[in-house]
Write a structure and sequence with these properties.
The protein is α+β, with helices and mostly antiparallel strands. It has nine helices and four strands. Helix 5 runs antiparallel to helix 6, helix 5 packs antiparallel against helix 7 and helix 8 packs antiparallel against helix 9. It is elongated and about 135 Å long.
Amino acid sequence: MIKIISLLLPALLFGETLKSMLEYAHQNNHILHSYKYAKDAKAKEAESKKSDYFPKIDIGASYKNTSDVTPFQISDIYSGYGRVEVDIYDGGIKSSQLERAKNEYKASGYDEAQAKKNLSLDIVKNFYEIQSLEALLAAKEDSKKSISEQLERVKRFYDAKLATRDDVERLQASYDTNIYEIESVLFEIFSAKKALEIKVGKKIESFEKSAFMENSASDFEVSDSVKSLEYKQNALQSSSKALEGAYYPKIKIEDTYSVFGYDNIEPTHPLKIDRQNVALISLNMRIFDYGATSEAKQAVDLSAKALSKQAEYMSSEQKAEYEISIARVNSVKLKIQSAKSALTSARSAFKTVNEKYSAGIADYITYLDALSAKTSASALYERSLNELQIAYALFYYHSGKNLEEFLK
């Protein structure tokens, strides 16, 4: 009993809401952190591609020593230089690479958003599964109390020679079975809480009741997974354009300014140069590479088509799941009505049987059957209520929405 109280009582005092857990998980879950870092990396890559448009500036220095020089050579030469390099035209490679990086960054953002939604749905399922288990635990505990009272009653009858040993043993067996089931449920709750704590990112002592708004005519939005695939497809198409740019002319301008110093040389030496500026404009164009670039482009194009088909499939799947989620909500509502009716009947039947059993009119088998029916009906009703909350969550999830926005 102490274990039951320690498990359930804190919920009345320090319970956490489902919304607060979702918000905390979005900030502290390690998997979401990895998606954020991946997105930040793509942002840096996009910035680096923008920098490719600016001139490149290099500086350098050198020392050259030549032994056994002729009169027309210099033995020791020191030099320093600065070089500026500008691409006038590169066949559209830089712009395509920048566009690819931007699309990959957008895709990574949708990957992160979808990961949040997936995590939220997992947490919601865990949360309401624990709620169902705790309801089952409460029903089992109530059953345990009733069986314990009747067991003590039958033992007194047995001591007074008014009941058989078989009557005592059967009730004892039911009591022990109930204890076994309680321990099993306790372990399930413990395991489910640990799984939930990993997802949320902190230790959870207890819960408060939480509920979703009833589903209304919510606007359907394409899932972030589909949007991510679309941007990844765009990124591959940009990569294809960059490969195509390899066959276009490339024009580049370079300007190099150098200064020189010498050891042991006559000022009038014919090869002595103090300063030198070299300007260069170059044009090059690839005309043949045995089809390497062309085949690489075809491979990228095929990969883009593959992503397109994946996006089409996932889009159709989402629409089907959306329709199923609407039907699921309606189905669970009907199940709740049936479960409520069954619970009312089971409680009424148990009350009658309990009175008859106490009066010695009904036997313990009838009593245990009625008690078991009431326990099962109570747990089933609570589970159906939690299933409705999960059904709402699935509806909003397949609508492409953020679950935390629809919690009351």
